[in-house]
């Protein structure tokens, strides 16, 4: 019988100076974690901290106060210990039970993790400003409670650059390769950048929590914030913008959020108002301290010493000399310029650059299914969405059918624009189930939990690039719902969208017209399917009285391919001709701004849409690229509709389209609408033709063709082991 493999050894290190009385609590909690080594480095305590540390079982290393440095002293701790994992606390951060073991488990996720960090939790007496800040800051880092691995500085997610030595652990081999910088502040965040640059990963472990909340008197708070932002500037170049009106506005927004946070916890109105005043002063002061601290190198040394909580001026006191200004700080000699700080979020198209610089992850034959005709592991990469998105409705409906066929599906949200920034995977899954389909698929925000798949299915041009960087996949396919380069004018986005067809993903197109276009313009082969109709939702409603004056207009005018200005002017022309027309717009939350009075229904649930179609007389929905799902759903409810001729509809609907196709001009569209309103015989014929046409269009049939396309991707992308 094999002997069990021993786990990594661990050390806990706490830098200390006059940490009493809270230090005793921290020492006891740390000593109970079961570490192999316990070390306190004391830099001149006079309050009994050294005796307390020794009494708690810690080795104590005493150093002269003037030799202390946040990075320098922690590097000394690494030299004095031998453990595989070195965990750091500050003297006021109390680790919760299981804290150290949680870090051991985090490092076991991936051997490339150099550092891991956990949440800072408020103490019972923490002020609401700080308690809410901690909750809001750490909550989005792992909404599902799992370890989140961050592989690079521009990795999608919340505050990816953050790392705090108040509560962090490090792999010794990484610290030996990348020691902490010898800086006054933010040595931890500087390490994070250096680690990313060196090819290491970072992880957030939500179960490695500590009680740690700085709650000083107001003036001490401001002095601490001065030091913190000063350190950020010295290590990262960050400089807080100074706009007085913006500071006042932001302080008010934050104070209101504090009041709401208290309200949600049952705090009375009077207490909330008192805290609101304190919160206003706190948040405004913090921003002013940030402005001053990030420009501290421009202040006289005596002023720096006076304002700093640590009383340092940064020159001649053992601290580093303020850094020389970089080229980004140099104003132009010929025109007026000002420095602009780096953006708060990663470039949304960073994954494009990653593919171009680091290449495409090769397909992995180990992830091909053993049974070519059996159930598949399908990973679907989707872009961010909002309720009412027709493209996402198609994606999620197809996933539902694939699940019914026995395939195991997972959904991976690629959200570089932050549409779901504050949402957990569970929140996103709830949105899918509420607004689209009740799926069994697991939902993941980002790719930190990527585990591999038989087939990766990209569902939009930007998700193609994300898919190309995923390893452990047997094949890649591309669900093409439209020719997306046409969504953009001449631009980088258009160029990148066009290139997606050249990466070898097998296209599965949402119409024969679209498949022919993709093959003609980009070469290769393509599968295709017809859009389906959910006949359980979209059908005739005998209980709903059909009006004779109502036009249901899919008014998603924010989408250029929907030809919004053309449609709205056609409706205006129709209203000019006759005063008995009732227009109901839907499909977007905001009203259209038509020059005629109309009804606005906003974004409707499918069951509501079905009844709107059953009530209406004519449907108006235009598409200048691939044909739309909306007309089919209208036809299934017995509603004749109007679209534009000369694009995809003639091919999609066959030689005798079951809807009225009009020339893409204002008079022609108004004529088509008016004929369906006035000619009852024509209306009845079109209604019957539409019902007959959609009867054969089901999502099961559509998904079977998608399934065949996925298997074709596996068949045509064979790679040797």
UniProtKB/TrEMBL annotation:
Q: Which SUPFAM superfamilies match?
A: Nucleotide-diphospho-sugar transferases (SSF53448), UDP-Glycosyltransferase/glycogen phosphorylase (SSF53756)
Q: Which domain of life is it from?
A: Bacteria
Q: Which family does it belong to?
A: Belongs to the glycosyltransferase 2 family.
Where do the record's region annotations for Disordered lie? Answer: 310-329
What is the protein named? Lipopolysaccharide biosynthesis protein
- Entries under PANTHER family matching the protein: GALACTOFURANOSYLTRANSFERASE GLFT2, RHAMNOSYLTRANSFERASE WBBL
Q: Does the keyword Plastid apply?
A: no
Q: Which CDD domains match?
A: Glyco_tranf_GTA_type, GT4_PimA-like
Its ancestry begins with: Bacteria, Bacillati, Actinomycetota, Thermoleophilia, Solirubrobacterales
Please report the stretch or stretches of sequence annotated as the WsaF C-terminal domain. 550-643
List the keywords (alphabetical): Glycosyltransferase, Transferase
Ranges of residues in domain Glycosyltransferase 2-like? 12-178
Q: In which pathway does it act?
A: Cell wall biogenesis; cell wall polysaccharide biosynthesis
GO MF entries:
glycosyltransferase activity
């Amino acid at each position: 019988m094999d002997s069990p493999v021993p786990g990594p050894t661990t050390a806990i290190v706490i830098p200390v100076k006059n940490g009493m009385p809270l230090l005793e609590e921290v020492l006891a909690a740390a000593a109970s974690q079961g570490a192999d080594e316990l070390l306190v480095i004391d830099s001149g305590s006079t309050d009994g901290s050294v005796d307390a540390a020794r009494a708690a079982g810690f080795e104590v290393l005493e150093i002269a106060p003037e030799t202390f440095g946040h990075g320098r002293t922690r590097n000394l701790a690494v030299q004095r210990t031998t453990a595989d994992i070195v965990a750091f606390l500050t003297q006021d951060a109390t680790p919760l039970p299981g804290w150290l073991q949680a870090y051991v488990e985090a490092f076991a996720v991936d051997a490339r993790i150099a550092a891991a960090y956990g949440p800072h939790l408020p103490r019972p007496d923490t002020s609401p400003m700080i308690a809410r800040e901690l909750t809001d800051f750490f909550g989005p880092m792992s909404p599902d409670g799992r370890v989140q691995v961050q592989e690079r500085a521009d990795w999608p997610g919340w505050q990816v650059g953050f790392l705090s030595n108040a509560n962090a652990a490090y792999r010794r081999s990484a610290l030996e390769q990348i020691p902490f910088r010898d800086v006054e502040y933010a040595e931890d965040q500087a390490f994070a950048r250096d680690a990313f640059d060196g090819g290491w990963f970072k992880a957030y472990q939500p179960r490695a929590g500590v009680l740690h909340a700085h709650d000083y008197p107001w003036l001490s708070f401001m002095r601490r914030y001065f030091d913190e932002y000063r350190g950020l500037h010295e290590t990262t170049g960050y400089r807080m913008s100074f706009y007085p009106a913006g500071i006042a506005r932001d302080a008010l927004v934050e104070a209101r959020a504090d009041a709401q946070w208290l309200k949600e916890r049952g705090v009375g109105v009077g207490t909330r108002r008192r805290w609101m005043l304190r919160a206003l002063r706190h948040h405004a002061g913090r921003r002013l301290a940030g402005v001053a601290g990030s420009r501290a190198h421009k202040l006289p040394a005596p002023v720096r010493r006076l304002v700093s909580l640590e009383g340092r001026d940064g020159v001649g006191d053992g601290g580093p000399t303020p850094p020389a200004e970089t080229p980004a700080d140099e104003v132009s000699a010929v025109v007026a310029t000002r420095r602009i700080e780096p953006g708060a979020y990663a470039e949304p198209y960073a994954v494009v650059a990653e593919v171009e610089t680091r290449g495409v992850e090769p397909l992995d034959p180990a992830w091909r299914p053993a049974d070519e005709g059996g159930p598949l592991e399908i990973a679907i990469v989707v872009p961010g969405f909002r309720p009412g998105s027709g493209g996402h409705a198609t994606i999620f409906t197809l996933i539902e059918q694939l699940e019914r066929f026995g395939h195991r599906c997972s959904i991976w949200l690629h959200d570089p624009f932050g549409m779901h920034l504050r949402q957990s995977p569970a929140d996103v899954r709830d949105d899918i189930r509420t607004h689209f389909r009740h799926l069994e698929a697991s939902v993941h925000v980002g790719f930190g939990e990527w585990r591999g798949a038989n087939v990766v299915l990209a569902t939009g041009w930007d998700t193609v690039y994300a898919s190309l960087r995923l390893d452990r996949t047997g094949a890649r396919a591309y669900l093409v719902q439209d020719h997306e380069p046409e969504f953009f004018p001449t631009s980088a986005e258009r160029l990148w969208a066009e290139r997606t067809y050249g990466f070898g993903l097998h296209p599965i197109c949402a119409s024969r017209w679209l498949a022919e276009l993709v093959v003609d313009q980009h070469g290769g082969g393509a599968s295709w399917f017809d859009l389906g109709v959910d006949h359980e939702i979209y059908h005739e409603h005998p209980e709903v009285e059909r009006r004779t004056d109502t036009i249901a207009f899919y008014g998603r005018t924010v989408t250029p391919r929907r030809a919004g200005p053309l449609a709205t002017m056609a409706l205006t022309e129709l209203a000019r001709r006759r005063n008995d027309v009732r227009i109901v717009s839907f499909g977007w939350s905001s009203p259209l701004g038509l020059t005629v009075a109309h009804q606005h229904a906003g974004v409707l649930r499918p069951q509501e849409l079905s009844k709107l179609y059953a009530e209406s007389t004519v449907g108006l929905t235009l598409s200048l690229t691939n044909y739309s799902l909306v007309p089919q759903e209208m036809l299934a409810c017995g509603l004749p509709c109007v679209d534009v001729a000369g694009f995809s509809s003639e091919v999609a609907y066959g030689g005798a389209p079951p809807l009225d196709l009009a020339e893409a001009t204002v008079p022609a569209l108004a004529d088509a609408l008016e004929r369906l309103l006035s000619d009852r015989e024509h209306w009845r014929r079109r209604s019957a033709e539409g019902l007959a046409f959609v009867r054969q269009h089901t999502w099961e049939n559509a998904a079977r063709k998608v399934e065949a396309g996925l298997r074709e991707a596996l068949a045509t992308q064979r790679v040797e082991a």
